[in-house]
Write a structure and sequence with these properties.
Length: 378
Amino acid sequence: MRLLEHRAKAVFEAAGIRVPEGRVVETGPSALEAGLEIGLPVAVKALVPVGGRGKAGGVAVVETDQELKEAADSILGSTIDGYPVESVLIEAAVDIEQELYLGVTMDREARRPVVMASGRGGVDIETVAAEDPTAIAREHVDPAFGLHPYQARAAAYGASIPRSAAQKVATVLSSLYSIWADRDATDAEINPLILRPDGELIAADAVLNLDDDALFRQSELAEQAAPASDVLEARATAAGLEYVRLSGHVGVVGNGAGLVMTTLDLIEAAGGSPANFLDVGGGADAKRVAEALSVVFDDPNVGSVLINIFGGITRGDEVAAGINEALAGFDELPVPVVVRLAGTEAEAGRAALTDTVESVVSLEAAVDRAVKLAEVSG
Ligand code: GDP
Ligand code: MN
């Protein structure tokens, strides 16, 4: 579970990490009011539970009333990674001498928590790791002892951070580790931790992801859970479908979690990328297939849809009738649909299928076709 930025910052602040003064608002006029109260310049930041908001247009630093109004209006009501922006954080802008990165996560290979520090913050840390791994200092932690102060210093001094700031950075890193451990977090991150020209350190961003399996003992934070506000996920859940949005281009509809997962793997193996996981479950009747398709069609990333159904108790001819009925509502399909039917009465089902879809017998061939069609329309 990911906390929204202002919630994570409240936790960080309570642990002694400095954060900018900020207010959460939901309308343009209240954004302006908050900005004037805090004092311009301010940062306007979309409150959605994903990273990379800056690149997606969800963060703006503004100098004037007019800019603030425009930024708030354009960010509020936009959608970032499928999340409609319902509120923004208005926050005192921070003067930047250098942007730093601090993070704590579990290193599964080392079977230990790892703390990380870098003088190259403010950008995607995965990019830094790929370009210049030496720019990130790492220390593994024995959870029985916690992060020793000397380790926090080793990370801070080893991370191309100005020496005058390193001791303070080490203190922030120790606090961040304590938060991570005390709150049962999977990740705790400050990117950027801004080093101001006067030498102060301010956490301009905050990430705190909690381990879902530990929420029962983090009830105070669990109540602040960002609800699943992905519109498509909410619609699918309401229809009783198992749906997870992914980032690729081939929409997937199948019956049974195992079959759907296999389909995702085959799409990857064929050089494509799945847009979602969608299990219509047993009894793939017309209504469920129609609901599933309407969700998948409404994902703007989808370039083709692959329906992969194995007829068991549900017979292939019934499934075909369901697909036909579901598609009858469309004058023209929004994207091409490939159907692979197998199992009970599959042949009868294929014969009955509407010719607005492409019916392919072998699973591999169906996957290849769907991947190709997604490329063409993508
Ligand atoms: P993210 O893209 O979701 O990680 O959101 P961030 O809060 O990290 O914002 C992206 C970038 O905006 C940061 O890396 C900074 O470079 C910049 N930024 C964020 N907050 C401030 C701020 O208060 N002042 C200034 N000057 N820049 C900021
Ligand atoms: Mn950030």
